[in-house]
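User: C-alpha cells for this complex, please. No commentary.
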Amino acid sequence: MTDLGQRSDGERRDGAPRGSTAGTGVRTPSEPVPVQRARPLPGPPVDTPLVIETRGLTKRYGTRAAVDDVDLHVARGDRYGFLGPNGSGKTTMVRMLLGLVFATRGEIRVLGHEVPREVHQVLPRIGAMVEGPAAYGHLSGRTNLDLLDASGPGPRAGRRRRVGEAMERVGLGGVDRRPVRTYSLGMRQRLGLAGALLSKPDLLILDEPTNGLDPHGIREIRELLVELNTEGTTVFLSSHLLAEIEALCTRVGVVDRGRLVLEEPLDAVRRPTGRVVVRTPDADRAAAALGSALVDRTPDGALIVTPADGTGAAGLARHLVGAGVRLDALEPETVSLEDVVVRITGPGSDRT
Amino acid sequence: MTAILDRLRATGDGGAPPPIRSVRVRRWTVVAVVAALLVAVPVVVAAWPVSPAVSVSPAELRDRVAASGNLPWSGYAEASGGLNLPDVAQFSDVTTLLSGTSRLRGWYAAPDRVRVDQLYPAGERSRYTTSTGQVVWDYGAQLLTYVRRDPLVRLPRPDDLLPPQLARRLLSGTLPDDPVTGLPARRVAGVDAAGFRVTVADPRTTVGALDVWADPTDGLPVAVELHTKGATGTLSAGPVVVTRFLDLDRETPDPSLFVAQPTPGVGVTRSPTSDLFGVLGRGSPDSVPAVVDGVARVAPQRGFAAIGKYGTTLSQLIVVPLPADIAGSLLGNIGDAGSAGRTIAVAAPQNALGRTANASAGALESSLLRLAVLRVGTRAWAIGGLVTDDVLDRAVTDIAADSAGAS
Amino acid sequence: MMVVELRKLFRRPRTWVTIGLLCLLPAIVAVFLATTRIAPAPGEGAAFLSAVLESGSLYPAAALALVLPIFLPVAVAVVAGDTVAGESGAGTLRYLLVRPVSRTKLLLAKLVSIVAFVVATVAAVAGTSYVVGVTLFGAGDPVAVVNAIPQISGPGGGGSSSGGSGGGSASTPSAGGSASAADPAAPAPAAPGAPTAGAGADNGAPALDPTQARERAADSVASLSGDPLSPMDLALRLLGAMAYITVSMLGVGAIALFLSTVTASSLGATLGALAALISSQVLVTLDAAASVTPYLPTRYWLAWIDFFRDPIFLRDIRSGLFVQAAYVVILMLAAWANFTTKDVAQ
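Assistant:
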C-alpha cells in the first residue's frame, strides 16, 4: 500500500533525503535526522497527500515530556501502525491529533487542516476510538449511537439507516435493546468502533481497538479495517501489540518515551539482511566448510552465514552440498519487527 | 459568550496560532474583567458624586422637613436599632423593635391615609391608618383587627421608624434654638439628599444628635440617624438607630392600597385600641402625679386619662399605672437582665396611716431608652423616656413619694 | 445538541428518582398535617405551612418552601456537578468532542439541560403538591378555616402568644387579649379574650352574606398582606414564584457546572457547589458579613415569598434576578475559559 511517490513527496518536504533513514532503518535519539522546523507549513493544504503531519510536536506535563518533538507523517491510504510500549505517549499523541489535548509546542495538520484551530472542519471526516470505548450504560447500543449521531453535525434524515449500517458492520446487527452496561468488553469495543464508523470517515484514528476482543473478534476487526482501507479510508492505529501492527499495517511508527524513533514502511523494516540462515544436522562440518563466511551460531544450532558476493543462497547451497553437508533448511535472514523494536526502544516506562 | 469566543478566534487568525497557554490566559482575563465589571457596578453607582438639586441652608431644610407631613410617597425602608435591650415580657415588641432590623413597606398619601407593612420572611403585619381609625392585619394569626383609637402617647411601633415619621416626630421634640449644622449630602434610594444635624442641648435627654437627610426640594426625609450622648455630653461614635429608604416613589399611591380588604374566612375582630398604653391608660387621672421631677403633667388625652406625660421635648417622661402582677413579673425580668437591668433604691413611703408600704423599683438600661418599673404596695407604674438615669431616679422617687401622699 | 442533552437527562433513571424524591417530601408532610391537623405555629416552620390547613391551594407554595432550602439545591448540584465531570469520568466526553461538538456549545447545552431539570422539578413539586393539598385540605374550605383559628390564635386569650407571632415583635393586633391576660381587673375591652371565629363573623366590618362568604371563601386565599387572592391571581403568583425559584437555582447550577469542568469527579463538583452554598447560607445570617451579603447567591432566595405580598414586592426579586444572572454569566464564562482550553484526558 505504501506509495513511494507520495512518500518521497513527504520526505522532500521535511528536507531529509530518503536514503538517510532507509540506510539504517533506525533513528536513535542521539542521531537526529536534520529537519527544518523554522519553515511554516506550506500554503494551501488541499492537495497534500499527507493525511496526518506533525512537526516538532511536544506535550509536557510539568517537566515530563509525554510526547517529545515528534514529526509524524501518515499518507493517504496508509494503514499506519503507531507502536510503542505502554506509557510511551501514544494516547497523548492520539488525543492531540483529535484536538482533545493541546500541544505544548509544535504543529499538527490533519486532512490538510491545522489542529486544534480548525479541528472542527476535520473531525467530521474522522472516526476515532480513544483509549477504550465509552457509552451511556443505561441506554441500548442503538440509542447510544443515535445520540452520538444526533450530537454531530450530520442531518437528521437517514440517522436510523446510518446507525443500523454501523451496527451491522461491526457485527452488532443482531443485538437487542438491552442496555450497554450488560455488554461484554468485546461488544463495547465493537460499539465503539461502530461509533467511529458512523460518519463514513476518510480517516480512522483508533487507539488500541482490539483490547478485550477474542482472537476471532480480532481477526474480524482486522478484516474490517483492511476492507475499509481498500475502500479508501486511511487507518491510523496505535497499539502496543507488535503482532497486531505486523498483521495489519503497511507503515509503522515506533515511539519510545515520547520520541518517534522509527517511521518506515513495514516492508522496509522487515527487509532481508542479505545473510542466510542454515539449518543442518552437520553443523560442525558446515562450519568448517564455511570458514569466515560463518557469522554466528544461534542457540538452537542454526548458522548465520554471509554468502560470498553474488552467489546468494543458491550458491551457498551448492557449496555446502558439495562439502557433504546435509541441509534441513536454508532461508534468507529477515529482521522481525520485534527485533527492531526491542533493539531501538528501552523498556516501557511502566517499568522502573 | 459565543460572540466573545468568535472574536477571540478571529484575533487568533493573524500570524502563527498562539499556544494554548496564552489563549487560556486571555480567556481567563476576559472572565476576570467581566467579573470585576459586574462587581464594580454597584460600587461605582454608590460612589457616584452626590449633587443635591437645590442648595438649602440646614435650618431651612429642618423647617421643610418639619412641614413635610402632607407629601405623598411610597417606598421600602429598613430600620435598625442597636440598643441590645433584653426581651422583657410585655415590652418585647418594643425591645425587639429597637434591637434588630425592621423591614418596612410604606404608602403615604396624607396623615390619615397611611399603610405600613412590616415584612417578615414568611409573613407580614400591616397597619392601615384611615380617617376613622386603624386596621391591623396579622398574617401569622390570620386576623384582621379594626382598631378605634390609639392614644397619642403610646409604645413605639415599627411604622414610627419610617424615615419621614421618625424625623418629624423627633424634630418636634427638639427646641428651636438647638444648633443645626449641615451634613454631607448622600444618595438615598435614588434621591440626592441634603443632610443636617440637630444637636440636642437638653441635658435631661439621652438623645445627643439627630441626623436627617431629606430631599432638598420639598424636605421629605429619606434617612434618619440618631446619636446618643454620654454623661459628659459627648456623642456616641455611631448612631444607635438608623433608618433609611431603599426604594422611594414620590407619586401619590393608588387609593385602593389604603383599604384593607378582608379575605373571606380570615378572622375579623374589633378592638378599642391596639396599644398597651391604650389599655393601661384607661384608669383614673389621679393614678399618676401632677408633677414629676419638677415637670408638670401635660393635660391628658380624653379617654386615656391615666397616661401621664411630662414635658413635650425629647426629654419627656411617660408614666403609666401598671397592674401589680405585671409589675412583679417585669421587676423579675429586670433582675434577670444582667448588666442591662438596674435596681433603684426607693425609700419606702409612709402612707397616711403611718404604715410603711413595700416599695421596689428597677430600671432597664439602654444608651437611648430607659424604662423603670416601680411598685409601691399594690400599686405600680411604668416610667419611661429618652432620659438620663438621674431624671429616671428622681422620677421614681417623686412618684413613690406622691403615692404615699395620695393614698 | 440541546435536544441530545435533554434526551440524555430525561432518559436517565436518576433524574426521575430525584424528582420523585423531591415530590415525596411535601406529600409526607401533607399526610402528617392532614391526619394530625397540627400546623406549625404561625411564623415558624416553613413559609405558608401554617396556612395550608385553611387552603390546600396554597400547598404548592408551602411545598416549594419545604424543598427550597436543602433538597432542591442538592438535587441541582448533583445534576449540574455531573454534567461535564460525569461524561469525562465515563469517557463519553471525548467521543462527544470528536463527533465533533463544540466545547462552548456543549457547555451551553449543559446549562440548558440544568434549566430544564430545575423547571421540571419545580413544576413536578408544585403540581403534585397541588393535587395532594387540594385532596387533603380542600381548596379553601371555610370549615377548615374555622377549625384552624383557635389553634392559630392560641388557647384562652393568650395575647402574648399571638403578640409574639409572625417574627415575634411589633405591636399586638390582639391587644385586647394582652390586656385581659395582663390585667384581669381592667375593664374588659370590646372583644374580650381570644377573638373567636364567631366574634369575627359577628363583628366583621364589611357585613357579608354568609352563603356568599362561604362561596368566596371556597376559592379565595389570603395574600400575606391579607387581601384576598382569586384562584387566577394565586395561580399567576405561583407561576411567578416558580419561575423565580428556577432562576434562584441557576446560580447553584452554574457553580456546579463550572466545578464540573475543573474536576473529573462529579462528586467533587457537587460537594464543592454545596460547600459554596452552605458558606453562603451561613454568611447571609451573619451580621458581620453584611458588606458582602448582597453578593451572595443565596441572599435573595426567599424573595419568591414576596410574590404573595400585595402589591407584589419586587425589590428583592429584582436584586435576586440580578445576582443570579451575574453568577451565571461569570461562572459560565469561567467554565468556558477553563473547559475550552483544557486537556480532555483522564
